[in-house]
Amino acid sequence: xxxxxxxxxxxxxxxxxxxxxxxRPVPKEGEEYTYQWKPSWANDPNKPLLKITKSSLGAFKxxxxxxxxxxxxxxxxxxxxxxxxxxxxxxxxEDFYNDVDIEKAENMSMLELKDYFTGLFxxxxxxxxxxxxxxxxxxxxxxxKDKKTLDEYLPVGxxxxxxxxxxxxxNLNSNYPLTQSYVVHLQGVIDRIFKEGENYIPMELKTGLWxxxxxxxxxxxxxxxxxxxxxxxxxxxPVNHWGWYYPASNHLTVEKAKKxxxxxxxxxxxxxxxxxxxxxxxTSFFHKKCVHCSFIDICPASVNSTKEESDWL
Length: 313
Fold this sequence. Notes:
Distance between the termini: 53 Å
Strand content: 15-25%
Largest sheet: 7 strands, mixed
């Protein structure tokens, strides 16, 4: 992403007023899309659209109250080590693909290739993961060279920011019927898009450990497929496959896009709009999940659950 594109991802946070009440940020004049959206704006061309990203939709499906705290309230969260690591590795891989010289690498021995690829990654505290990525890229490079398809080694999209508008029909999700149809704004930064023949494959880079969470990551990639197919400035279609790569576990999957996941993702967008229509982002408490939430100390479900435990004891 360029510096200008990164500006679009800088958060505007809410704040506490003098009474200790949380005040949400409001859309700036002229903004095209926002998380602080109101359904009553739907027919006003001067009002922003609802912004939906892969991360915001995933947060909503994970916990509706967490979505409200994080995206509508814009409450800040403490920066964690996994967040720092993830950002560093993503930036390093983006730079690798921008800087690698295919012609220079083509006639290198494997030992020379290893030294060259390693030198394209910065010295850091995450050398174990970057070493895994180097070995993975060396193997990929060799396979493409042997098949004489080095022209397809580099991604056609590298941390590619895309924007799209989409009409969500009021009857899309029968469990969450809307009062009317809405146009929403989809936005996302796709880690990598590779071309294979005439097809395009979005790929997610994950810096954690592989935990066989196929449902969640498939929904993320389904969102990207929908985004790519609707972004007017993309043109990287058709998208018949998608994939993900976990260097920490040396886990790579490329599979055919799942129709059922695409349907579920579209229905999730309708469910999100339904929550806005009803101004209802309910809480739920499950200790193993909630213990990792940044908002556990202020979440009503967590507070009430802890109080009930205390009362029982």
